[in-house]
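hey all, quick one before standup. I had two proteins in the batch that finished overnight and I want to keep them in one place so we stop losing track of which output belongs to which input. First protein below, input sequence then structure tokens straight from the run.
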Amino acid sequence: MSAFKIAIGCDHGGYELKQAIVLYLRSKDPFTDKYSVVIKDFGCYDTASVDYPDYAKAVCETITEGGNEFGILICGTGIGISIAANRHIHIRAGLCYTPETAALTRQHNNANVLCLGGRQTTAEQAYAIVDAFFTAQFEGGRHQKRLDKL
């Protein structure tokens, strides 16, 4: 099994959840879990106020340039950072609050960036959402036709 190359970033509202997700993902065992990861952390690195578009840009640029396959972005609600991410070409960012929406955003939208709300999502919820996102696969077919129109 190969490891997903994931870029992760957040603003101050997502810092604590980002830290928990990084630890969770780094604990993945490639022999017993359904996937493993290599993580590149683009910040932020504390709870001092910062601007979420800067972190969305850094994560999205590494994906479009081929440095990472996927991204995880987190701000207080997940809304602002998902808007910022979707401004970038070839980025399909989905804001997810449940494992079901995380799986569907990969299956139907071929999302390459998972967005989360750090003040809306507990660490335990985030782990289930992240697992659903990275174990789902794009279904293609009728969904590809729709993506081609984007």
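OK second protein, same deal, sequence then tokens:
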Amino acid sequence: MLRLGTASMLMQPGQFIMADKLNAKNVAKKKHVAKAVVDYLIYVESNFRRALDIASEATALVQYQDWRWKARIGKCQFKLGMIKDAERQFLSAIKNQDMVVLHLELVKVAVRQDQPLRAIELYEKALETYKNETSFRVGIARIHDLLNDPGQAYVIYKKVLLFD
């Protein structure tokens, strides 16, 4: 059951969170609330500018050591067209905590920059750490499809399906 205040907010049409009225510093101080608010702003409202403000404040509060905030900043910067800045954030996040999702985001940056060969390099480098990650192998095949190399793509897709 929802609390009475939350229930009354849900009954009113309009936004659940008034992003323009949020104080980024105050929200960032509340660690768990800030994570939920930033994710809401990114995935529900697509308000990347406001999410970037809050994530930047939260990153400063944790002395730039939390990979999750760096990843969220990178995602916001990517969506706002700040591609080089997003790439730096994802690389920094990988240094803090090497995760599959960060490698996938970094590849999206390379594809957006129209660097398919670099994207393949990034996938192959990630496969050194995560040998059995199928999303990397499928990603390589998709890049080959984009490069109009269906033969190589077919070979890679086949390996993924046969678990070689």
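Flagging for whoever picks this up: The chain has a mean pLDDT of 90. The two ends are 48 Å apart (CA to CA).
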